[in-house]
Amino acid sequence: MGKVIVVGSLNVDSIVTVERHPRPGETLIGGDLQTMFGGKGANQAVAAAMAAAQVSMIGRVGDDAMGEQYIARLAAFDIDVDEVRVDPSSPTGHAAIAVAADGENTIIVSPGANGRVSVDDLGSLDDLSEGDVVLLQLELSIDVVEDAARRAAAAGARVVLNLAPYADVSEDVLSLADPVIVNEHEAQLMRAAGRDPRSVLITLGADGASWGDISVPADRVDEVVDTTGAGDSFCGTLAARLAAGEHREAAMRAAAAAAAVSVGWPGAQPSEP
Ligand code: ADP
């Protein structure tokens, strides 16, 4: 059984509900502040740990209270945090999120320590073995993501690359991933950029997901509470199941089931391990 190594972001999400979004220059009064743990990297690491994988995380937090709390939180999920560095020079990554009454979000991401993750943090990727899965998203600098993919592939590990939020990644790196994971919006941007990777898994919201000739339906959800993080639950669970040696279709079904559960809780991660 392989390990899952997530190289990615750790953010604290600050969420305020508003009647409508403010116009430039305007001040609005919103609801009570909700603070939640997020960042696609850590969200996916938590999902993989919940799917029973042995998970380690590579990333950075700031030398502040939120960073310390975040590391403790990941450790409580049995995630190996030895390579989550405390960066002395920048704060923990943060996302300021306004949720309007119509459900539309506006989000400002302040990468903070995530932006300091460098290729020097990736040394352990050279010691992976076949069967290990390296799970990547695009909330770190593209250079770091590309280097991580190349090292992981050179070591014989499987690369799973979630192209979110969408950015143009070089063709050779896309061709290393098995699969590249995109939602419908990212799939459109990828096609518009002329990219056509060999292995692409598309998530289709309430319509499920497809990967080559395999399609799986979404699980039925009685009450949709918050779809934030559905994609992250999907990616983390898929990586865990592939690391466990499952075939593509079984891994996708498990991923869809986990994503459906995640739409039933607020925010991107469950509140308790
Ligand atoms: P993202 O959250 O990245 O935009 P999607 O919206 O495609 O990604 O959702 C990812 C996965 O989450 C889907 O493939 C599906 O399995 C599951 N999912 C999303 N929305 C729902 C829903 N309303 N009901 C059930 N499953 C859902």
UniProtKB/TrEMBL annotation:
Enzyme class at the top of the EC tree: transferase
Gene3D superfamilies per record: 3.40.1190.20
Pathway membership: Carbohydrate metabolism; D-ribose degradation; D-ribose 5-phosphate from beta-D-ribopyranose: step 2/2
Residues bound to ATP: 183, 203-208, 231-232
Keyword vocabulary terms for this entry: ATP-binding, Carbohydrate metabolism, Cytoplasm, Kinase, Magnesium, Metal-binding, Nucleotide-binding, Potassium, Transferase
InterPro entries in alphabetical order: PfkB_dom (IPR011611), Ribo/fructo_kinase (IPR002139), Ribokinase (IPR011877), Ribokinase-like (IPR029056)
HAMAP family given in the database record: Ribokinase
Family statement: Belongs to the carbohydrate kinase PfkB family. Ribokinase subfamily.
Protein name stated in the entry: Ribokinase
Species of the source: Naasia lichenicola
